[in-house]
TrEMBL record:
Species of provenance: Trichomonas vaginalis (strain ATCC PRA-98 / G3)
Glycoside hydrolase family 20 catalytic domain: residues covered: 223-567
Higher taxonomy: Eukaryota, Metamonada, Parabasalia, Trichomonadida, Trichomonadidae
Gene Ontology MF term list: beta-N-acetylhexosaminidase activity
Keyword Transcription: no
Domain F5/8 type C: 627-748
Protein name listed in UniProt: beta-N-acetylhexosaminidase
Recorded coiled-coil stretches: none
A single GO cellular-component term on record: membrane
GO process annotations (BP): carbohydrate metabolic process; glycosaminoglycan metabolic process
Every Beta-hexosaminidase bacterial type N-terminal domain range: 100-219
Catalytic activity: Hydrolysis of terminal non-reducing N-acetyl-D-hexosamine residues in N-acetyl-beta-D-hexosaminides
Family designation: Belongs to the glycosyl hydrolase 20 family.
Length: 766
């Protein structure tokens, strides 16, 4: 096998160890696929999120998750999705859509035959100087002589041709593969680079004999901004890991890496004028994000050098080297410095910038203090000296504004400017920062809350709360990057929760992400031109290790790349999945840890077939009403035969919120319309992670009656609180048979939890 074309940095990362399939780990003899639990192990009878029955975990083989390091692995890729072809041959009747390229090109034609890379193959390029050195350094052709003379060979040659007279986009390229030569033509070096990525993908697929199928490709991106955001504040990652991601993101034609450098979790970039930011606020005393947030105020942050402290930061020189490396891969790094909210770490290091003048009191910087602006401008000056990005992200999201309401300095600014609400005070800060960035020829980029109180004249908006912020911005003449959390938050579960490590709810499937299109229909053609592109965001509250980041990022970042590059009419999810399986194999071979897509749970199978039982479509009377935000199908939802899926938010689960004025927060009666012999009453309750606050009940009661007045309690059980396992809990009464017309089911929540939910999909009577 030839191996001439490789990514030059992938050799630093070895192949992953032997990998196992999560689904196959459910090896309890009594596993129940309806509830995803083990019915044999009575005390802890639910599998944990990683697929191992708690009671049997000690006796089973090693889990697929290392609980100490949270290193997550996948199992080897199956080959049943690969195109069948004769060894060393490529049929010209292979559909264009089967070329293994992500993101998929915009025009593809296949021809008979193939080009064979062999020891005598030469490279010709008309690139000069640094550009020539860059590409010859990036691609290396093992044991192949390299030619850069003006003499252009006709056969057995790979040509990289720059032609600035071509009428094409700066990132576009044309690729022609014949039996004699591979030719890439582009207007700029960006285009040459992206053409090489396409060749690399073709070579990785058809490398048995160094052969690449003959084809003609004309390609250019749909959007100019194709980004991924990495949150390094909640959980610090080593620089080597970021270099590694730059390699792969560039391979999939992502051209922007947005780094979330500052937040409450820690300040991650050296600022020479304010050394306490990293000396006092780059480390903390707890690695677990939720435990740290809930641990109280004292000792939240640790000084640099504190034994056992968790965190880290990047020096300015390290960031300059990273920027230089990314630039050679045609990736722009966008730094984010949060303001005015998410700034607790700043006010711990420099409490004079808080309204209270002390740490651990305020969430937002004091806008009424002129020194706050001096601080921010000085920080941004150093940041701009490191990052040449045309965009500087200033956050601007989720400012609570509590401290401003009682701060004399903030109130004076409001009075002096005739502001009528605190949104205008936030806008006051954003406008001043935008003016400062304008002076330095940079664009202010912020989350869509910067619309509150009025948008600065030249601001760029990153729309995350939905599309509406982006729509408003575009309609008022502002550039927009679409990043709605409903589609573009890559820290959500990507498959059903019981088969996944902890993540944000509800799930964001690969299909959900792939089918997103970032230009809303309501925009006019002129307004649509202001949509720069799309960005997927990897927040790390629940992601604690580098391999876990990769597991959440891939393959969903590949879907983001196709949203940003491939024209809408060329997208097809099923064909994308066909191409994806091979790319996942390549990721694993290069030492990455992607989520596998060939054994997805996706749907609870029982939810696909209506359940027939005695209470089907009978009248239901609620003593404790369901919450209007989660009604499912309304009053008849729990007797409609529709079992729920794995997601509480899929419209099949009815939700009940905690109330302390009633004993049973779930309480309903079903009229069977006639005396019936009842052998079973069963109710599914869902349990999801602490962030969702969805719990199983503390007490479950089933009562039967012939007249709806005199009740016979046939089941009254209480349960202990469990916070380490999730799934569906089937609470049920079974017996030899009781004659009754009315069935009453009740469930009591845990009084000491307060903020909690019960979710139910069906009351089954048999």
């Amino acid at each position: 096998m030839f191996s001439y074309l490789i990514l030059s940095t992938s050799s630093h990362y070895g192949r992953p160890p032997e990998i196992l399939n999560l689904k196959r780990k459910i090896n309890c003899a009594e596993f129940d696929s309806e509830t995803a639990r083990c019915t044999k192990c009575e005390e802890n009878y639910f599998i944990n999120p990683y697929g191992v029955c708690e009671k049997q975990k000690a006796s089973t083989e090693k889990s697929t998750v290392n609980y100490d390091t949270q290193e997550i692995f996948s199992n080897p890729v199956h080959h049943h999705h690969d195109c069948d072809h004769e060894h060393g041959k490529h049929s010209n009747d292979i559909p264009d859509s089967q070329l293994p390229i992500i993101p998929y090109p915009n025009s593809v034609k296949l021809y008979p035959g193939n080009f064979t890379i062999q020891a005598s193959t030469r490279v010709y390029t008309n690139l000069q100087g640094d550009d020539k050195a860059l590409f010859l350094n990036y691609i290396y052709l093992e044991e192949l002589p390299v030619s850069s003379t003006p003499f252009e060979l006709e056969k057995n040659v790979i040509k990289l041709l720059l032609d600035d007279t071509l009428d094409m986009n700066d990132e576009a390229y044309n690729l022609l593969v014949t039996q004699d030569a591979i030719t890439i033509k582009a207007k700029t070096t960006k285009g040459i680079f992206y053409g090489i990525q396409t060749i690399l993908q073709l070579y990785q697929k058809y490398d048995d004999e160094g052969e690449i199928p003959c084809c003609e490709i004309y390609d250019s991106p749909a959007f100019e901004y194709r980004g991924v955001m990495l949150d390094v504040s909640r959980h610090f990652v080593p620089l080597e890991f970021i270099y590694k991601q730059i390699d792969m993101l560039a391979h999939f034609k992502i051209n922007t890496l947005h780094i979330h450098l500052t937040d409450t979790g820690g300040w991650r970039i050296e600022i020479k004028q304010y050394p306490l930011l990293t000396q006092k606020a780059a480390y903390r005393n707890e690695s677990d994000w939720n435990r740290w947030c809930n641990s109280g105020l004292d000792g939240h942050y640790n000084d640099t050098g504190t034994p056992g402290a968790y965190g880290g930061f990047y020096t300015q020189d390290q960031m300059r080297e990273l920027v230089s490396y990314a630039t050679k891969k045609f990736i722009n790094i966008v730094p984010e410095i949060e303001m005015p909210g998410h700034s607790e770490e700043v006010m711990y290091a420099y409490p004079e910038y808080s309204c209270a003048g002390q740490p651990y009191v305020n969430h937002d910087l004091c806008v009424g203090n002129p020194d706050t602006f001096t601080f921010l401008c000085n920080v941004l000056t150093e940041v701009m000296d490191i990052f040449p990005s045309p965009y500087i992200h200033i956050g601007g999201d989720e400012a609570l504004k509590y401290g401003w309401k009682t701060c004399p300095k903030c109130l004076k600014v409001m009075q002096d400017n005739n502001f009528t609400d605190f949104d205008q005070l936030q806008s006051y800060l954003i406008k001043k920062i935008e003016a400062f960035l304008d002076e330095h020829n940079r664009h202010l980029l912020g989350w869509d809350e910067i619309l509150e109180g009025g948008l600065p004249p030249h601001a760029y908006v990153m729309s995350w709360t939905g599309e509406q912020g982006g729509i408003i911005a575009a309609q008022t003449g502002h550039h927009v990057v679409m990043s709605p959390s409903l589609y573009m938050y890559l820290d959500h579960y990507q498959d059903e929760f019981f088969a996944q490590p902890d993540a944000r709810l509800p799930p964001r499937t690969l299909e959900n992400i792939y089918n997103y299109y970032p230009v809303p229909d309501v925009l006019t053609p002129e307004e649509a031109k202001l949509i720069l592109g799309v960005q997927g965001n990897v927040w790390t509250e629940f992601i604690t290790s580098p391999s876990h980041v990769e597991y959440m990022m891939y393959p969903r970042a590949m879907a983001v790349s196709e949203i940003g590059w491939t024209q809408k009419n060329n997208k097809n999810y099923n064909l994308f999945m066909d191409r994806l399986h091979h790319e996942i194999q390549n990721l694993i071979a290069k030492g990455y840890f992607p989520h596998r897509t060939d054994n997805l749970y996706l749907n609870r199978q029982q939810s696909l077939v209506p359940k027939k039982h005695l209470a089907l479509n009978k009248k239901v009377t609620y003593t404790a009403p369901y919450n209007p935000n989660y009604p499912a199908a309304g009053d008849g939802a729990l007797v409609d035969g529709q079992l729920g899926g794995w997601n509480f938010d899929d419209g099949t689960w009815q939700g009940f919120y905690y109330r302390n004025d009633i004993e049973f927060q779930f309480d309903l009666t079903i009229d069977l319309e006639e005396i019936t012999n009842i052998h079973k009453v069963a109710v599914n309750f869902m349990r999801q992670s602490e962030q969702a606050r969805i719990y199983w009940p503390q007490r479950f009661v089933v009562s039967l009656s012939s007249d709806n007045v005199n009740w016979n309690t046939v089941l009254d059980e209480t349960y202990d609180y469990v916070n380490t396992i999730y799934g569906l809990s089937l609470k049920k009464y079974t017996g030899d048979g009781v004659s009754a017309q009315y069935v009453r089911v009740q469930a009591k929540m845990f009084d000491d939890l307060q903020d909690q939910w019960l979710f139910v999909d069906e009351v089954v009577v048999e």
